[in-house]
Amino acid sequence: MNNLFFKGSVLLLLLLTVSVNAQKLRSNDEYERNLSLSADSILKKVSVLSMSTADSQFKERNQPIEIRRTRKFKRRLSPGGIYKKVASATVVITGGCLCDHCSNLHVNPASGYFISEDGICVTNYHVIDSYIHPGEQLKPKLIVVKLHDGRVLPVQEVLTASKENDLAIVKVDTNGAKVPALGLDVEPEIGDDVYIVSHPQKLFYQFSKGMVTNKFRRKFPDGDNGFLERDLIAVSADYATGSSGAAIVNKYGNVVATVSSTRTLKHWGLEDKPTQMVVKEGIPAASLEELLK
Predict the structure, then answer these.
(1) CB 3.0–4.6 Å: which of 69, 117, 135, 156 could bond 173 by disulfide?
(2) What string of DSSP letters covers 64-93?
(3) DSSP class of residue 202?
(4) What are the pLDDT digits (tens) for 72-125?
(5) Global pTM?
């Protein structure tokens, strides 16, 4: 009896140890610092995509591309199962820039996700644009992604981009290795549950749940008093700056939209105009399908 009790206690201890180690606590500052150091190491050791070439590809490539995409998952997952599946295919994407004041490589993390085991990664148009054109004080040097398993890999090509739909698709150099990827699913309906794994303000791999709250089309300013129109879905799942480019997925872990923006609604009639609500806007998967053959 005592022997059985001892064996059971050891087994329980092992299970608890596995559970704790499966989701280690991390320092977000240390995570960002390691990302910067890894990007700097890649820049010094590997031939990377030049930002002038990336700029040309970004401006010129806007046609649908043919890829070997991942099939959509058909079995419903638990919330924990969704997190594991989506987190494994979600990346921290960042540009690496140098400034005139120090020798450190500066990073500005956002989100992205793989849709092909070959390293085809989706993020926002505005994310890639900000890395190629970071401003006069910074000199862009490369774009990298960091996977959930810790690997840091360079972006080797901009495949296509759509300013209208705020989407960009890039090829990551996986050195021939396969990466976890997500499938695309049909457009969700209002009221459907959705989940997001993203990096809001450097809270890396934050998990949130909500539902689709609206579907609409709205105009965005596009310079010189012009406008562009975009199909959108609104969700109640939380995200913030740094979440741009993350996958919005359904109960199967399939992509139904891509995080794009937030819109703060103020009270119209009051002097100090307090915030009433924040609308979380995503690009439906149907818009991403337009960029894929």
Answers:
(1) 156
(2) -B---PPPPP-S---HHHHHHHHHHHEEEE
(3) G
(4) 999 999 999 999 999 999 999 999 999 988 989 999 999 999 999 999 999 999
(5) 0.89
